[in-house]
Specification:
By secondary structure, the protein is mostly helical. It is 62% helix and 0% strand. The longest helix is centred in the C-terminal third of the chain and has 34 residues.
């Protein structure tokens, strides 16, 4: 069963928003809000994994299987966020190299 991992509002961008001089995406959402939302999702997955690990270690509940899945999900979300960040930085560097 694949884990549902979503990127908020990033999937709705199209090329028409790149020609404008504003810092807003197609839906009128500022890039900062999209980035903050993605960071909060990654942090939430990390907190959920930590909570699951602590519950398992204290014997309060939860099984090893769900604990490992929560940990792997948090790791995958972080790795995906890191790759998106790397692509954004790379695109920014390419734009800065362009001569006007």
């Amino acid at each position: 069963m694949p884990l549902p991992i979503s990127l908020p509002a990033v999937a709705h961008l199209d090329s028409s928003s790149f020609g404008s001089s504003s810092t807003q995406a197609v839906g009128g959402t500022p890039f900062k809000n999209v980035l903050d939302s993605a960071i909060q999702e990654v942090e939430g997955a990390h907190a959920t994994a930590n909570e699951s690990i602590n519950q398992f270690l204290s014997g309060e509940g939860g099984d090893l299987h769900s604990t490992i899945l929560a940990s792997q999900r948090a790791d995958l979300e972080f790795q995906m966020f890191l790759q998106v960040r790397n692509k954004v930085v790379s695109a920014y560097q390419e734009v800065m190299k362009m001569q006007m």
